[in-house]
Design brief:
It contains 6 helices and 7 strands; from the N terminus they run E-H-E-E-H-E-H-E-E-H-E-H-H. With 233 residues, the chain is an alpha/beta fold. The strands form 2 sheets. A 4-stranded mixed sheet has the order 4-6-5-7, sandwiched between helices. Strands 1-2-3 form a 3-stranded parallel sheet, with no helix packed on it.
Length: 233
């Protein structure tokens, strides 16, 4: 699930410390790394990466970011819940037997979590998969049947999204499998965590996110040099 990566429209909570153009550049790196991780997963499980994007008419903004062999699917619906639900519907209607909706803000999620989600959805007739985020939301929700009720009445962009979704699934008698908790990068605190984990103490327990690491290192160098100049003045 991705917004067209235009300056001033994506990663706005990361500006400052970055300019709108720099925040958009980082968003592009997130997209490239997420796609690379999904393609790696697709080499081991029967899966196809697809970009579900918004708004209409912004297809050209993905050129050079999204590989030519990754399809673009236009999101529809007036609110976020409807866009999620309709994306599931459209993917199932296109012939997929299951769908994982994945955010574009978590470039370091281990590829094995995406593989596990696909395996779970393909092994049961009716279930859901959730990848919880540290902020109370989720970085992935997977379904193998259209379930619009799961997205209705959720308090989006709050710390209760994950729990509300679990409660709704229970009310629908829908079995839920949980992936490893992870984090998305949508504020300065998460940005610092990402910087520390990618550039200060990199580990093998995550997707390496080479594009994000390169762009973030360059941007942080600029931010720090600017801060030093202000101290001198």
């Amino acid at each position: 699930m991705a917004k067209a990566p235009r300056a001033g429209r994506v990663k706005t909570r990361l500006s400052p410390p970055f300019s709108p153009a720099e925040a958009a550049e980082l968003n592009c790196a997130f997209l490239r790394d997420t796609i690379a991780s999904l393609q790696a997963a697709a080499s081991s499980v029967p899966a196809v990466p697809v970009i579900s994007y918004t708004p209409a008419g912004e297809e050209d903004t993905f050129v050079g970011i999204v590989p030519d062999d990754v399809p673009l699917l236009l999101q529809r619906g007036e609110d976020f819940g409807k866009r999620l639900s309709f994306t599931v519907d459209d993917a199932l209607a296109a012939g997929f037997s299951a769908v994982c909706l994945i955010d574009s803000d978590s470039p370091t999620v281990p590829t094995t979590e995406y593989m596990r989600a696909a395996q779970l959805l393909l092994s049961e007739s009716r279930c859901a998969v959730l990848g919880p985020s540290d902020d109370g939301g989720y970085y992935l929700i997977g379904l193998n049947a259209a379930t619009p009720e799961l997205f209705a009445g959720i308090s989006w962009s709050t710390s209760t999204v994950h729990e509300q979704t679990r409660q709704r699934a229970a009310a629908l008698s829908l079995k839920v499998h949980e992936l490893r908790p992870w984090f998305d990068i949508d504020d300065e605190a998460a940005l610092i965590r990402l910087h520390d984990e990618l550039l200060c103490a990199p580990t093998q327990d995550r997707f390496p996110a080479a594009e994000t690491r390169s762009v973030l290192g360059k941007l942080m160098e600029r931010v720090l040099s600017t801060a030093d100049e202000k101290k001198v003045l």
